[in-house]
Amino acid sequence: MEAIEYTTPKTIAEAVQAMASAGDRARALAGGTDLLVQLRGGRRSADLVVDVKDIPELNEVSYNPQSGLTIGAAAPCYQIYANADVAANYPGLVDSASLIGSIQIQGRASLGGNLCNSAPSADAIPPMIAMGGVANIAGPNGTRQVAVEDFCTGPGRNVLESGELLVSINIPAPAPNSGANYLRFIPRNEMDIAVAGVGSAVVLDSSGQNFVSARIALASVAPTPVFAREAGDSLAGKAVSDESIEEAARLAMEAAVPITDMRGTVRQRIHLVGVLTRRTLNNAIRRARGEE
Amino acid sequence: MTSNIVLSEVEYNVVGKRHVRPDGVDKVTGRAQYGADVQLAGLLQAKVLRSPHAHARIKSLDTSAAERHPGVYAVVTAADLPFASLTREELGGDYQRLKFASNHVLATDKTLFKGHPVAAVAADSLHVAEEALNLIKVEYEVLPPAMTVKQAMKPNASLLHDDLFTSELGEMSDKPSNVASHMAFEAGDVEQGFQQADVVLEREYETASVHQGYIEPHNSTAFWNADGQLNIWCSTQGPFVVRTNVADILRHPVSKVKVTPMEIGGGFGGKITAYLEPIAALLSRKSGRPVKLLMTRTEVFEASGPAPGTWMKVKLGASRDGRITAADIFLAFEAGAYPGSPVMQGAACALACYDVPNARINGYDVVVNKPKTAAYRAPGSPQAAFAVESVIDEICEQLNVDPLEFRLRNASREGVRRVEGPVFRRIGLVECLEAARNHDHYSAPLEGPYRGRGVAAGFWFNRGFQSAVNISVNPDGTVNLIEGSVDIGGSRASIAQQAAETLGIAYEDVKPTVVDTDSIGYTMVTGGSRTTFATGWAAIEAAEDVKTQMVERAAQIWDASVDDVEYVDGVLSHKSDPELRMTFRELARQLLGTGGGITGASNVDPAGEGNGFGVHVVDVEVDPDTGKVTILRYTAVQDAGKAIHPSYVEGQMQGGVVQGIGWALNEEYFFSDQGQMMNSSFLDYRMPTALDLPMIDTVIVEVANPGHPYGVRGVGEVPIVPPLPAIASAISHAIGARINRLPANPGAVLEAMS
Ligand SMILES: Cc1cc2nc3c(=O)[nH]c(=O)nc-3n(C[C@H](O)[C@H](O)[C@H](O)COP(=O)(O)OP(=O)(O)OC[C@H]3O[C@@H](n4cnc5c(N)ncnc54)[C@H](O)[C@@H]3O)c2cc1C
Fold first, then answer.
1. Which CATH number fits domain A1-46+60-172: 1.20.1440.230, 2.170.190.11, 3.30.465.10, 3.40.50.2300?
2. B40 close to B130: Cβ distance less than 8 angstroms
3. pLDDT above 70 covers what percent of chain A?
């Protein structure tokens, strides 16, 4: 690890200015649970670290029944799952926030950091995609919005340009009769990287027997998190049944393009996408029906 | 639910009680000094340059830029080792041994595993040392690696050493080979034995390379003084072994090497070999400053000593009434880059649980392009048990015999001769099998789909070897106990207990201290399940020496003959004059005025080690969709001979099971096609976490070892032996398909099911 500059801006404008001053050699620091590990391990290098935890907008967690949930990019996991509005309205997000790392990691790790680190295995990204999340970005040229499913462009790469900062993530208010769930498969019970992960969000009709719409996203089965659009769309208008869920699982498996490595094989990962799609859809349906 | 049962036969005053450990306060307050805590004036930090290739020829090595780098004090390579300037003639029969030992520390012409040290730098700071490593230029010619015994044994395999010949049942082969040796044991008439069998099964097994995974990485600090005195502070199970290794590799007199063992954060057999010490010593000699060298976790995985991956074949015959009639076993173990896998131990353990009249075991020690293997808890036995116990489990299924009943019918007991020769003295396998059968776990129903129960037995020799203890009496009636055994599993307490019991004084009155190699007589490693047995024995003898001298002093004070003085339960008394009576404490107070202090000393090499056996029962559940195995319940039964400190025996049993569960389910070195380890971190080398484990119930059986005053056997190694086969069998019963390769990770279980 080499010597680096460190700064703690108090406003978005200051942060953007700092980021822009060092261009590609600047890194934002939220919880640091990815960044510090990577800097120490020599997998990333930086000249300037911009700690964004002192900026009010990046720490906000607020819910509004009209505009939905705003999660500041640096808000740590524990503040997300401990928030009563989040717990009541976004259990699918709590699934992720409460399984990242461990209690200690959750005290620091942010969903913004999870998104900006852009790992194919990131656990918070699939549920954010499934729930229709939007990233709010600030940069030298002002602000812009990018759907979470369009955010990651490759392993560790994303749409952020030099000098840009993720400010927050917005998740729409949940529709009536909706539910979401995220599950990952790991060989152990904690402290592991997903062999495969699936986030599903469903909207049912008032009878709870038919899908109005659904969105499904996958982790660890491609160079980026995968939005399995066809898999979710296949459910729209269909009755809730083993057959419709099976068809969605089949389409999700088709959307997976994994590799074989020390964490799993292609065959195993595609198989797991099927298993987890079925399980998350069923859990999301239960939540949509108010059964849990 | 039951847990932690102790089935005691004999009760003592101090022995067998759960006393507070003397090192506890320092450890829980963080004051205990580990190797990384060593601080000396002028200390330099060092870093090792390691081979990025599993197999390569070093075409050129240029350290000049690193040497010129500001802040660098010394750079060393293999050219700095004495071996570089010794001739084959000078070394004679010692040549190859020293060559391997030296090259293992720093590579000369070839690197034989990824992580093999090539050079090292000592500098002002770690960062400067790291920068300097980047300035060292090495040109490699990359060679194809041989990564498994199957690859390495092929006739056209890539050769690691062009001067390694097979020691073929004592004869030397005429062509160089990756097979370092072939050994064999045979007893009875194997062919005839198979003819007598009603069922004969032959199966093939494989296990992966695994690591001990001790929490504290290797470390070493060395200071080579101008007068040639070399002081070393390190984390080791065996300071005297480090002293011997360093003296050997550096061709330096043993008397000029002092090794101070720091507190140790786990070893399990992996902290015996000197990896860093010779390098730190050379850097210190060159720089004239003390030098500290620490491994990262990745270096620990890539360049210390894992346990071997194996390829095994077992053919077993049994009669309809459940008696084993014959066995034919093939074991090929990875040695790593240099010869020396524990295949011999594996072969000797393979059938030790059973009275097998006709048996043949062939063992092969095979070099591969992986780090040189080291001991890991009962080295060789877990792998061999996986193979043999798995076949037995299948035979029990075929014969429809209860697996514990089958084992009882064939169990080794006193008088049975092992395949490799020795005859068992009193052992406790039958008692363990009976205790397992009587345990409520074994009779508890296991209902539900994809659930299975497995049982297995396991063996380890347990060792004796040399230990020394000094005990001196303090004026307040306490004693200082000086020992050379590094305390890994609570041995300060269990050694002190044996001294207190022998002296008839309170446990709290014995103050144990572990010292350096200048301050106590030769003491073998804390390993081999020997410490409580052998160092305990030394403590008993030193205590007896103290007693003798105390009796002499009392006789002198009372003007009596020593024959008239009795020493019972810490009280000295005149046999015929009841007025003349002193407690240990009362006499201690008078020592300095009556002829000086008293120190008892002993050096022992006890031969009466008691063989150890364990029997485990495990219930698992398999998720049929994902292949993931959950351990529902685990019970470990073991003969401890006498549990000096039952909590620490239970700790050993539970710890061994935990490591066995990791080995069985997920742990594995994962290599790229070019032989690079891909998962050299605890994130991807998947040892179990607390959330992956159930409470592990223990039953301590006590069948006293007749070869020790308090009946002690060793306990540290046996408990890692049965988990591999017990878990593999449990999974097999849960899914209806055999598991013949470990680890049985979720992917492998899914494959087995499909
Ligand atoms: C022990 C351990 C266990 C873990 N377990 C899991 C797990 O189970 N699942 C999982 O998904 N991850 C896991 N991780 C990875 C990590 O904890 C998560 O990705 C976490 O969400 C990262 O958040 P952070 O706030 O710590 O990010 P940081 O490390 O601070 O930042 C991550 C990356 O995002 C960039 N960044 C951060 N904030 C911004 C911003 N506002 N604008 C622009 N760029 C930004 C940083 O420059 C950096 O490149 C684990 C890590 C550790 C150390």
1. 3.30.465.10
2. no
3. 99
Residue nearest to atom 40 of ligand 1 (CA): A166
Residue to probe by mutation, ligand 1, list A105, A162, A192, A193, most atoms within 8 Å of CB: A105
Interface A-B: count of C-beta contacts within 8 A: 45
The one-letter code for the residue type at B739 is I
Query: Would you place residue B505 in the very low, low, confident or very high pLDDT band (cuts 50, 70, 90)?
Result: very high
Q: Is the CB of A27 under 6 A from ligand 1?
A: yes
What distance in Å separates the CA atoms of residue B696 and residue B4, rounded to the nearest whole number?
9
Residues of B with CB below 8 A from A261's CB?
678
* Phi-psi region at B675: left, alpha or beta (left = phi > 0; alpha = psi -120 to 50): left
Phi and psi angles of residue B212, each rounded to the nearest 5 degrees, phi first: -60, -35
List the one residue out of A264, A106, A105 whose CA is nearest residue A197. A264
Contact A195 B746 (CB under 8 A): yes
- Cβ-proximal residues to A241 (8 Å cutoff; 6+ apart), any chain: none
- The per-residue pLDDT for range B618-630, each reduced to its tens digit, is 999 999 999 999 9
pLDDT digits (tens, 9 = 90+) for B532-576: 999 999 999 999 999 999 999 999 999 999 999 999 999 999 999
Residues B43, B46: Cα–Cα separation, whole Å? 10
Burial (Cβ within 10 Å: 0-12, 13-18, ≥19) of residue B722: buried
Which pLDDT score, from 0 to 100, does residue B1 have?
46
Domain end call among B559, B576, B604? B604
Q: Would B251 be classed as within a structural domain?
A: no
Other Cβ atoms less than 10 A from the Cβ of A242: the count is 9
Cα B564 from chain centroid? 47
Does the predicted interface ipTM exceed a cut of 0.90?
yes
Are residues B596 and B616 located together in one domain of the fold?
no
Please report the pLDDT score of residue B281 as a whole number: 98
Tell whether B297 is within 8 A of chain A (Cβ): no
User: Containing H/E element for B210?
Assistant: none
Q: Which CATH number, 3.30.390.50, 3.10.20.600, 3.40.50.2300, 3.30.1380.10, labels domain A192-288?
A: 3.30.390.50
Ligand 1 contact, A33 CB (< 6 A): yes
Please state, in angstroms and rounded to a whole number, the distance separating the CA atoms of residues A83 and B371. 50
Amino acid identity of B152?
A
DSSP string for residues in B401-436: --HHHHHHHHB--TTPBPTTSPBP-S--HHHHHHHH
* CA B293 / ligand 1 centre spacing (Å): 31
